[in-house]
Write a structure and sequence with these properties.
Blueprint: E1 10-17, E2 32-37, E3 43-51, H1 54-67, E4 71-77
Antiparallel strand pairs: 1-3, 1-4, 2-3
């Protein structure tokens, strides 16, 4: 497992309750945006991509918060980030 610090690039998967358009990708730092349905047929948005540091991750999370989409999970993916 690669070491993680607040200033290193990393890749994350963020899951949100609700639906977000793919057009938000640029605003969210280029993260991929995918919408699926959960077991109860409710929309779940998954954001996945590299961030340059955890300050950028916080920016993504603050944007999602401002949009009013509840956070389900944030997962660090042990991959080399760009």
């Amino acid at each position: 497992m690669r070491a993680l610090s607040v200033s290193t690039p990393a890749t994350y998967r963020i899951m949100l309750s609700g639906s977000l358009s793919e057009s938000w990708s640029d605003t969210l730092g280029g993260m991929r945006v995918a919408v699926s349905l959960d077991a109860e047929q409710r929309a779940v948005t998954t954001l996945e991509g590299a961030v340059k540091d955890q300050a950028m991750l916080l920016g993504v999370l603050n944007c999602v918060y401002d949009l009013g989409l509840p956070l389900i999970s944030v997962q660090w993916l042990d991959r080399d980030a760009a």
